[in-house]
Specification:
By secondary structure, the chain is of the alpha+beta class. The protein is built from ten helices and eleven strands. The longest helix is centred in the middle third of the chain and has 24 residues.
Length: 268
């Protein structure tokens, strides 16, 4: 897979206007490729379709599908794909750009958002192709719809239970990421680490760490039984930092080393 920036729509700068859609796109960034770090005077929103990307603000955050990242005007943009990162984005400019996001309660950094609305971004791009007053207003209307989808979703997930269910689904799909842990999950849910850990344990009667480990081991069992992949390959696919660490954990939890499990054709 290669980086793809072909779907890019640009209106341009209009210094006299207080609020307008400047540009949008549908990109795929494949590591080690990334966008250059820079400080800009417009607001920008990133909505993932698939993959993961590391954004830096006061610290590093991982952006995954189900959340968006918002850089307000005047921010330094610094982000790097962790895995092939497919995302839609838009920029809004003018002196009122930041106020629009504030009104809709979209905060700088991570915000919960649900699945990316790619069709809306496609419609927005079509409007930016024509430089008329009518298309400019239509573009702003579509951008407003995109932002309200995010704002309404965040309000809908006002109950902690919803965030915890989201986190469990994230573990089930992103277990292969070795950096997935209680800290990244709590940050993704916009919760304090301690509050998140307690809520997860109360909901599922298991700690976050133990649930992540159980999902990784379950997938390791399947790969040991159903594939010819090496222990190193299985460790990488299941989110363990090394084959040595995978073997150690497997022995502690199962009572036998991974190759022993495979050779004796244990089932679980």
């Amino acid at each position: 897979m290669e980086t793809d920036r072909s779907l890019f729509y640009f209106w341009g700068a209009e210094s006299a206007r207080k609020l307008y859609v400047r540009s949008c796109g549908d990109f795929i960034l494949v590591p080690p490729d990334h966008e250059m770090c820079r400080t800009v005077d417009f607001a920008e929103l990133f909505w993932p379709v698939s993959g993961q990307c590391r954004f830096h603000s006061d610290k590093d955050y991982i952006l995954r599908p189900g959340s968006v990242w918002y850089y307000p005007p005047g921010s330094k943009h610094e982000y790097y794909p962790v895995k092939p990162f497919h995302y839609c984005w838009l920029t809004i400019a003018g002196e009122n750009a930041g106020k629009l996001f504030e009104i809709l309660d979209i905060k700088p950094g991570l915000n919960k958002a649900g699945p990316c609305r790619r069709q809306l971004f496609s419609s927005l791009g079509n409007e930016l192709l024509e430089h008329t007053s009518k298309h400019r207003q239509s573009a702003l209307s579509i951008a407003f719809k995109i932002l309200t989808e995010i704002g309404f979703y965040s309000k809908k997930l006002s109950e902690p239970q919803d965030y915890i269910l989201d986190a469990k689904k994230q573990i089930d799909t992103d277990f292969s990421d070795p950096d997935l842990d209680v800290n990244t999950l709590a940050a993704s849910c916009l919760m304090h680490r301690g509050s998140f850990s307690r809520a997860f344990h109360k909901t599922f009667d298991i700690t976050v760490r133990d649930y992540i480990l159980s999902v990784r081991l379950k997938n390791a069992f399947d790969m040991l039984r159903d594939t010819d992949c090496s222990i190193k390959e299985i460790a990488e696919e299941c989110g363990f930092h090394s084959a040595k660490y995978f073997s150690k954990v497997f022995l502690e939890k199962v009572g036998i080393k991974p190759m022993g499990y495979r050779n004796k054709k244990y089932t679980k």
